[in-house]
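debug: dumping io for the single-chain case to check the tokenizer round-trip. Nothing else runs in this session.
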Amino acid sequence: MTDSHNSGQHKDREAAAAEVRRMWQPTPSWTQPDPGPAADAEPVEETEEKTDALSEDFPGDSWSGQAAKPANQPAPWTQPQSQPAPPWTQPVPESAASSWTQPEEQDDELPAGTEPATADDPAAAQEAGPGSSSPVFGGSSFHGSGAGQDPQQATPQAGQFPQTPQGGQPGPGGQPLSPAAQHFFPQGVPGQQARQQPQNLSYRADELIQALPLPREAPAERGVRSVLKLRPGSSERSERIARATAATAFRRPVTIVVANPKGGSGKTPTTLMLAGALGQARGGGVVAWDNNELRGNMHLRTHDTNSRSTVTDMLQAMPMLTQPDARLGDVAAYLRHQVAGQYDVLTSATTTYAQIEAKDFDQIHRLLSRFYKVLVIDTGNNEGSSNWREAMKAADALVIPIKWKSLSCAAAVQMLEELDNQGPEAQRLIRRAVIAVSNGPGDVNKEVEKQLRPYFDSRAAAVVDIPTDMHVAAEGPLDHSALQPGTRRAALELAAKVSEQITIALNTPR
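debug: decoded output
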């Protein structure tokens, strides 16, 4: 009687326990809901029979892991709850659970015949240990729940990798920063940026040369700065820049024409000072040519007693000089070398028996262009002569020497107006022209300068003022080393301005 009573009581207890477990365990986020209560009816009966057979031999234990209770004591899960359920027993939203709980592929990795531990099997859950990710009480685990922990800071499961949120920055160790941290570190934690992929490296010679560090600026060469080995001042640095500009390597021989129809305007001294400045900056390769159709005065302003150094002598030797095996030394025999300025000079004829024509200019120009890089041509006073016009056609840059005197400036203005009517090429030459103002003692007329300086500023590319120098005013042979420092500095500035305009002309398509 007692055994049957205990057996019936045990069956009732087991049935109540199964009902409570079914009610308290919500459906996990990765499983489908129960189709209905009828599906669990038959397994419950089978469990009751197996449990009833074992309880006869072991009355204090049960197959489900629940300890047997005295007959007169109700089950603890049948008592009403006096406190709200812990937060980890609440169901986790599907979006949150799927982002950090065990992935769906985890079921495929379990051994055959093994089922994930649930609340129905507390013994299996206990064996899983605190590090297990099996869901307990509503799909969440005690160690992986969201209570007091940021889901983005959770440790990823096996086979998963931390993903940086879109627009987020990596934090220390490569982990993504939280939204609050991203507010303070929008570009990432300093010194903790993720390693960037190496870019495609290029080993081209020109790119490697460009990547080399620039050479250090040389110390000052004059004044107190040179004694203290300091960097040059602004004046010396600008002079270095002008010297480097004057030494520009052009891609072909270039021609500079110095022209003003007014005699005594300073054409020859300006030609020699410009040639000397270019020769010193470039280290040679410059020739000054007196292209006067009759007789110029360059032979009076240069050093040398070479009696054959005239254009007439060179024209007579032209058949020999135009041979393919002709050398620079053969041509230099008809030139005057100026040591101070490192340039050569071709003077005009000393007699009036031979006049230079256009064909003569063309022969000499082609010959000098074979052996020299820069040709500085001094012209005569006759704009209608053929060699004067051929010089203008061959010019890459135009230098107009003037004095602040009414006659000198008036002749320059008339020449500009005449060239302006010669077509587009002449107009481009005017826009690239450089005005060289060289005044002798007492040559400056302040009123003329006040009226005409704005005109030349608007018509030409630049206006360079050359200070008065008594060595130039003496009208003797012009030695570049005998010029005043200010005069040499102005000549170098003139050479730099002209070189700039030549560079523009060579890079501008016609």
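debug: round-trip ok. Strands lie at 254-258, 286-291, 336-338, 343-346, 374-379, 397-402, 434-438, 462-466.
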